[in-house]
């Protein structure tokens, strides 16, 4: 993730953040100039790619970029090393493949959905279908183009795998034909059939609140205290019935879910569950991780044949239509196919040479970790793309060394330091996104 070249000044304690201008997030049509060339970020709602789109993306990476595709923590795709003048050619390729349905909305199609939904018998609804409907409605709403490129919709099928990814609007399938809509610490229940429409209405209510506050907020959490979003009023205006979550309804909701979430439904927080492990997902889908979050064009093509490919927020892909027998071929392509792989859960920011802020080539310095404990390498204190939840923090420092969870470690000693890093969960966040 490139640094934001126009960061807002840090607000005084207790004061609301004031954004003087729109966000500078790159897109498919707005390229970002980085030290290794230009960068394009392609929004893929629910990470979805058809087989044809997989081919086009791989071809574009080879013909116009550095031959690689980065998978972001929102399941989007980035092309790097692009020539400055290739924007029109890239846009034409993407548009022809159906990857640019609305040029005016291309940066606001930020939709993460449970990637294994409908594939493994878990979950209470097929949120991949919700994602497609939400995307169509989003692109058809002229006002929605005013959302920032950072505003995020999260659609969780009830297993809790993506609900904790920090969505501005989070929908969680809740059984009994209902969904819980979370926004800014409030939760309402809506009919599942209304869920995508409700998410869009909630986003519109956010924009109204942001304009009313006058602070230029890009995300719900940036709204000043007291300028809450009136979700229920927005849903009523949109003709959507909604009710606050009541204590006496929660048990019935949990009983109906095919896989109950780990924690009781709470009014202010969506459920948290583990992401699926790499490997087979049911009889006809396979989950792979991209080493350090990057695929070569050949690795992307190795996902085919597939009914469809879903890039994931864990920097991998779910290959729909691939059975367990595909494991040897996916392995041979250099993809991570087993939960026991020491590279599963290891991630890194762009680092050198792509990012001028970086103190090291963190991707070259990264070493295998310990299965089950995410490790993230960062070239500077921004820690771009770090995982959610608990993880081992490996931070480059001047002079060529690193801090591993705050302890100084020479670059040559990273392997023992990372594999013996503490196992107790961290209790406090250490950085901002
Ligand atoms: S060095 Fe890494 S963490 Fe720092 S701004 Fe660059 S990409 Fe982000």
TrEMBL record:
Name used for this protein in its record: Cobalamin biosynthesis protein CobG
Domain annotation Nitrite/Sulfite reductase ferredoxin-like: ranges: 37-95
SUPFAM superfamilies in alphabetical order: Nitrite and sulphite reductase 4Fe-4S domain-like, Nitrite/Sulfite reductase N-terminal domain-like
Source organism of this protein record: Streptomyces bikiniensis
Compositionally biased region (Basic and acidic residues): 257-266
Keyword check for RNA-binding: no
Keyword annotations of the record: 4Fe-4S, Heme, Iron, Iron-sulfur, Metal-binding, Oxidoreductase
Keyword set includes Lipid metabolism: no
Pfam families for the chain: NIR_SIR_ferr (PF03460)
Chain segments carrying region Disordered: 1-21, 257-279
PANTHER family xref list: BLR3264 PROTEIN, FERREDOXIN--NITRITE REDUCTASE, CHLOROPLASTIC
Ranges of compositional bias, category Pro residues: 1-14
Regions annotated as coiled coil: none
Gene3D superfamilies the record matches: Sulfite Reductase Hemoprotein, domain 1, Sulfite Reductase Hemoprotein,Domain 2
């Amino acid at each position: 993730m490139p640094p934001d070249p126009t960061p807002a000044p840090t607000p005084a304690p207790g004061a609301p953040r004031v954004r003087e201008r729109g966000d500078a997030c790159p897109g498919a049509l707005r390229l970002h100039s980085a030290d290794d060339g230009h960068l394009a970020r392609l929004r893929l709602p629910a990470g979805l790619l058809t087989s044809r789109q997989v081919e086009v993306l791989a071809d574009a990476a080879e013909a116009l970029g550095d031959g690689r595709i980065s998978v972001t923590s929102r399941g989007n795709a980035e092309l790097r090393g692009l020539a400055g003048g290739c924007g029109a050619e890239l846009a034409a390729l993407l548009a022809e493949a159906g990857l640019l349905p609305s040029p005016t909305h291309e940066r606001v199609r930020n939709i993460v959905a449970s990637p294994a939904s409908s594939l493994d018998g878990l979950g209470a609804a097929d949120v991949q279908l919700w994602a497609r409907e939400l995307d169509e409605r989003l692109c058809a709403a002229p006002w929605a183009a005013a959302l920032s490129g950072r505003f995020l919709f999260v659609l969780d099928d009830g297993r809790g795998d993506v609900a904790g990814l920090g969505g501005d609007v989070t929908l969680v399938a809740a059984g009994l034909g209902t969904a819980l809509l979370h926004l800014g610490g409030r939760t309402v229940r809506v009919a599942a059939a209304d869920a995508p429409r409700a998410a869009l209405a909630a986003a519109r209510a956010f924009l109204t609140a942001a304009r009313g506050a006058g602070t230029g907020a890009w995300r719900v959490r940036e709204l000043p205290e007291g300028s809450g979003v009136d979700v229920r009023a927005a849903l009523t205006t949109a003709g959507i019935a909604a009710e606050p979550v009541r204590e006496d309804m929660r048990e019935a909701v949990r009983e109906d879910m095919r896989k109950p979430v780990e924690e009781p439904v709470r009014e202010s927080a969506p459920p948290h569950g583990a992401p699926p492990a790499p490997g087979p997902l049911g009889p006809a889908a396979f989950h792979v991780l991209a080493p350090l979050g990057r695929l070569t064009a050949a690795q992307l093509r190795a996902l085919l044949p597939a009914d469809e490919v879903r890039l994931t927020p864990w920097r991998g892909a779910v290959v729909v239509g691939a059975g367990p027998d595909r494991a040897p071929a996916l392995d041979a392509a250099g993809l991570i196919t087993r939960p026991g792989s020491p590279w599963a859960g290891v991630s890194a920011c762009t680092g050198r040479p792509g990012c001028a802020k970086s103190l090291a080539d963190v991707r070259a310095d990264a070493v295998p970790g310990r299965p089950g404990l995410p490790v993230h390498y960062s070239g500077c204190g921004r820690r771009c793309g770090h995982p959610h939840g608990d993880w081992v923090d490996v931070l480059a420092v001047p002079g060529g060394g690193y801090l591993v969870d705050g302890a100084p470690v020479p670059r040559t000693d990273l392997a023992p330091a990372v594999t013996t890093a503490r196992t107790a969960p961290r209790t406090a966040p250490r950085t901002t996104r």
